[in-house]
Amino acid sequence: MKIIRFSGILIAVCCLFPTIDLFSQDIPAPADTSQSAFEFIKDDFIAASLDSLAGLRYFEGFECPSDETLKNVFGFTPGFVPVYADSVYYNRLKKLDAASPINLTYNQYVKDYIELYAVKKRGLMERVMGLAQIYFPMFEEHLDRFNMPLELKYLAIVESALNPVAKSRVGATGLWQFMYGTGKAYNLKVTSLVDDRRDPLKSTIAACEHMNDLYKMYNDWLLVLAAYNSGAGNVNKAIRRSGGKMDFWQIRPFLPLETRGYVPAFIAVNYVMSYAAEHNLRPVQPLFHHFEIDTVIVKDVLSFNQISTLLNIPVEEIEFLNPAYKSRIIPATKENTYVLRLQKKNIADFVNNEAQLYAYRSQAEIEKEQVLAMMKTVTQAEYHKVKRGESLGVIARKYRCSVNDLKKWNRLRSTNIQIGQRLIVRPESFEQVTYAQAKPKPAPAQQTAAQTASTQETTPNNTSAEAVATITATDSAGAEPEIIVRRENIYHRVKRGETLGRIAGKYNTSIAEIQRLNNLKGSIIQAGARLIVGTTEITETSGQAVADNHQKTKEKNTVFKYYTVQQGDTLWKIANQHEGVTVEDIKRLNNITNEKQLKPGQKIKVTVVS
């Protein structure tokens, strides 16, 4: 054994067999083996796929020290890098070739990739070996089902270095690097939230189907690999240009540059994975293996944060096991379910708490939903740019609103603001609320109108009166009609998927206010629940009222729907916000003659409810 220095690393050259020239007559070699004809690109796409493992976030949580308990049959010290003579590589590959239907030949191209995997990128290769314990059992299961060579599992290492979220510069994605069009042809769907090309199981089945179809075309596995990488069109052109040759090594000069190194890399991976111990390579052990993973069916929308919080699973672990969900959201419905992969030890917790998982929303998600709800309801909002010396109080007075309004509209936790900050100062939106018709309970003749109102039962839609006030007014003819102002609750029926944040945004209120009105201690609500979301004033007049011509007319109890005028409102705009209401109706009900009479904050009648 002699020691040489290679790229700064001490390497032992083991001459287990007599050293022979790679291109002597004893070993078959390509027709043109001159140095000028050989093209090897350092750090090509294959090396780049290995490098992608170095930056994976989930590897930080899963990486463990190399397994020193593995049997070291060669007595290598940690970090020692053995390199062998060409004759050793040749004979080892000859043994592998004899046991495989794929032609595993040895030449300079293959040797260069053996050095890439076993020497230059050995640390990343040890990570690949660890990931292989998660993915290879699944690969082998489906390759066997399609009656294909099990050695094809190594192709995923060449394609993606077993990185399920790997993406090439041309858009190929996943363990098996499917392009969008090819993936679609094999039923791999891609949406804004889900990419089946990144799903380990679905992409593996698609890869098996695709390679099976290619084998029917070429009946040669090396040509299948070349076509898998560059497309059947490029392989067919290379066959024509070579004069109809059906051998990879003979058509290699006519293939795209990337594909020329693709097959040698595949052969090199076969060798390195089979003789890892001989090269002192030891897998970086993952925290779990293939047999420790199971699946559950998700029937409703679920985020990784919900699963992580309630089941106490790191988000990175969920993301690692479920790479197909691009935004950490599973967009499931009862009609369109999805699969979730978890460790087996977490499956029971998921099943036992499935309903709570669907209903749960973290505080961060609630706040996000509130902001989104506000963005939807606040259209054509008016903004103010904070100037030096201004405070929220000054700005609130300027725009005739309250400091609390400004804090709510802008999601401010305190009154601190910065010079140049843009604040929403007038959300031009109005959420219409359907008010129930008040039907007072018949009262004895001796009761006053105020007493009658105070003893009213709840209306058919269960709106209950919180407060009743009686105002006595005298008209110009001396009559004294009674005006009854009642404050009633506004209710909302919770729909599936709704949260307190979303409901609060819809009714322009806060989560805390809804919790107070309904005596809620937490934020979990059930579909079908009936919540108080606010209150409204309803005015009733009874007795005699004076018309514009000062003639006395008898009126029945009347309930009006009111609207608070906002900055920039016009009669036409207000009328359009209320179905069946015209500008003339508003003028008549409020004795308004022109637009100038409208003032922000003014409360006007918009229609008669009963």
TrEMBL record:
Highest taxon listed in the record's lineage: Bacteria
GO-annotated biological processes: peptidoglycan metabolic process
GO molecular function, one term: lytic endotransglycosylase activity
One Pfam assignment: LysM
Biased composition (Low complexity): 436-460
InterPro entries membership: LysM, LysM_dom_sf, Lysozyme-like_dom_sf, Transglyc_AS, Transglycosylase_SLT_dom_1
CDD domains xref list: LysM, MltD-like
PANTHER family reported for this sequence: LYSM DOMAIN-CONTAINING GPI-ANCHORED PROTEIN 2, MEMBRANE-BOUND LYTIC MUREIN TRANSGLYCOSYLASE D
Family from the record: Belongs to the transglycosylase Slt family.
Name of the protein this chain belongs to: Protein containing LysM repeat
